[in-house]
Design a protein that fits this description.
alpha/beta; Enzyme I, Chain A, domain 2; eight-stranded parallel barrel; 577 residues; 4 domains; 22 helices; 16 strands; Glucose Oxidase, domain 1; TIM Barrel; eight-stranded mixed β-sheet
Length: 577
């Protein structure tokens, strides 16, 4: 058995097809001055070939996966046509007298490192796009063929990694599951597997070394494990588990249009989706989202050489608001800075970017950026149910200053005769322990709170969740984290306000009963997590949820809390799968 990361739920049993990686040998020799034009020509030809290949892949993806899934290849084409990126590669060839493949490798790897180190999950995904495009250009430069992922029989793919291009080209009818050496829950392999509802385990490290072509493999996407040539008893056990899981998924699909309310109907909450672009709306609606609890606006500011205009932002926000109407849409103002650099803003390098000049701090220092965005959001609010949310707030003064800019934006629009929702709700993300501790003070200046657990957990526990050496210390069910969350919920309710959660914890089935029992009003998560969370909520009475929450708050060990939740859910015949 090999243990990895559970990336896409489900169980698959089948024969392995192992994809071996080609060795890419970059030519690092210095070239002669007279060879420069030849290298530039090689680059131009490789880019032209890459464009042609990606356009064919995009067409196939549109036919078989739908326009929303194919949109990623539109982003790949934009990377190939990015003048900043291409000029950087050509400049490096000319100034350093290096080969085209060496220049592409260096520039692309630099971009991959920048995006991979970003905290925002949407931005991390951009690293995979750039890597995919960069590898394609290099392979075309070096004449390396790409694997065909069309099969005549059903297989389980074992690979070092799978790019978005790989997954789009594969014969999805005959691919039972993925298992890869690399990747995490937010890698494109995982995202594509979840969208196709194909089981996947990633981050296995050495699966391509341990699995041989044709081996019988079990992929358990629920537990993050794979079995190689398992014994008959294990095969029989997993045949039963597979059937049970298929019945469970069928039950979840039947919940799409039902409310997220407890079995005794004493408590109803809102289940919303986190989105990064307008194209994410379709998945949110298909999974029964009752709104958008976090609309990340950073995508509008990335991959460009100037700030987006008010008109560009207005159109993007309006598109989502209209598609989701009358459901609520919480639009987070620009959460950029520190680890998420924008070259055109001349942002300083920082020793500790996670505690640095970012989000609302940067926007308050550059108020015109914030005002432009607020004007766009206000204009779009006339077409549905929009709300505004400020990120990275640490105290009341920041809320007051941001609201003063919001007031100016409202007055300007009134003077211009432009309609907007004059009673638009304004809230903040609770990501910093100081914010959670003084929630009772901050509640006077906001309409709602949304707890961003990704940052709140790492700040509270002083754990960099991206550091593999201490990632085991990143514990969402740590007593300190649970008590801070409870404090925020209680403070908001006492002030007659509401509290949501838009961090990963909101979609964690092990936390659902606890958060429900604490009184959380809104859960916002990846769209694919909504059915399972809804199922848990509907299987509980409100009294049982409160009982589980009270038990959790009285315990001192995260693992004990997790085991307690497991036992309590099994008592009501609703095990977490």
């Amino acid at each position: 058995m090999l243990k990895g990361v559970a990336a896409s739920p489900g169980i698959a049993i089948g024969k392995a097809h192992v994809i071996k990686s080609y060795q890419i040998n970059i030519n690092t020799e210095v070239i002669a001055q007279e060879d420069l034009e030849a290298q530039i020509k090689r680059l131009d030809e490789a880019i032209a070939s890459s464009k042609s290949q990606i356009m064919k892949i995009k067409e196939k993806a549109e036919r078989e996966l739908g326009a929303d899934k194919a949109e990623i290849f539109g982003a790949h084409l934009m990377v190939l046509e990015d003048p900043v990126l291409l000029d950087e590669i050509k400049t490096k060839i000319k100034s350093e007298l290096i080969t085209a493949d060496n220049a592409v490798s260096q520039v692309v790897n630099n971009y991959i490192e920048i995006f991979s180190n970003m905290e925002d999950e949407y931005m991390k995904e951009r690293a995979a796009d750039i890597k995919d495009v960069g590898e394609r250009i290099i392979k075309n430069l070096l004449g390396i063929p790409t694997d065909s992922l069309v099969f005549s029989e059903k297989v389980i793919i074992i690979a070092k990694d799978l790019t978005p291009s790989d997954t789009a080209q594969m014969d999805k009818d005959n691919v039972l599951a993925f298992a890869t050496d690399m990747g995490g829950r937010t890698s494109h392999t995982a995202i594509m597997a979840r969208s196709l509802e194909i089981p996947a385990v990633v981050g296995l490290v050495d699966a391509t070394d341990k699995v041989q072509e044709g081996d019988t493999v079990i992929v358990d996407g629920n537990k993050g494990t794979i079995y190689i040539n398992p014994e008959e008893s294990v095969l029989k056990e997993y045949e039963i588990l597979k059937q049970n899981y298929l019945e469970y998924r069928k039950k979840l699909r039947e919940l799409k249009d039902l409310p997220a309310e407890t079995s005794d109907k004493l408590r109803r909450v809102e289940l919303a989706a986190n989105i990064g672009t307008p194209r994410d709306v379709k998945g949110a609606l298909e999974n029964g989202a009752e709104g958008v609890g976090l609309y990340r606006t950073e995508f509008l500011y990335m991959d460009r050489d100037a700030l987006p205009t008010e008109e560009e932002q207005y159109k993007a926000y309006r598109e989502v608001i209209e598609k989701m109407a009358p459901r609520p849409i919480i639009i987070r103002t620009l959460d950029i800075g520190g680890d998420k650099q924008l070259s055109y803003l001349d942002m300083p390098e920082e020793l500790n970017p996670f505690l640095g000049w970012r989000a609302i701090r940067m926007c308050l220092d550059r108020p015109q950026i914030l005002k432009t965005q607020l004007r766009a959001i206000l204009r779009a609010s006339a077409y549905g149910n929009a709300k505004i949310m400020y990120p990275m707030v640490s105290g009341p003064e920041e809320i007051k200053r941001a609201n003063a800019i919001l007031k100016e934006a409202k007055e300007e629009l009134k003077a211009e005769g432009i309609p907007f929702d004059e009673n638009i709700e304004v809230g903040i993300m609770v990501e910093i322990p100081s914010t959670a501790v003084i929630a009772d003070i901050l509640a006077k200046d906001v309409d709602f709170f949304s707890i961003g657990t990704n940052d709140l957990i790492q700040y509270t526990l002083a754990v960099d969740r991206m550091n593999e050496h201490i990632s085991h210390l990143y514990q969402p069910l740590h007593p300190a984290v649970l008590r801070l969350i409870k404090n925020v919920i209680d403070a908001s309710h006492k002030a007659g306000k509401w509290t949501g959660m838009c961090g990963e914890m909101a979609g964690d089935p092990w936390a659902t009963a606890i958060l429900l029992g604490m009184g959380l009003d809104e859960f916002s998560m990846s769209a694919s997590s909504i059915p399972q969370v809804k199922n848990i909520i509907r299987s509980l009475t409100y009294e049982k949820a409160k009982e589980i929450a009270q038990k959790a708050l009285s315990m001192d060990n995260p693992e004990d809390i997790r085991n307690m939740v497991k036992e309590e859910m099994e008592k009501i015949n609703s095990p977490i799968m």
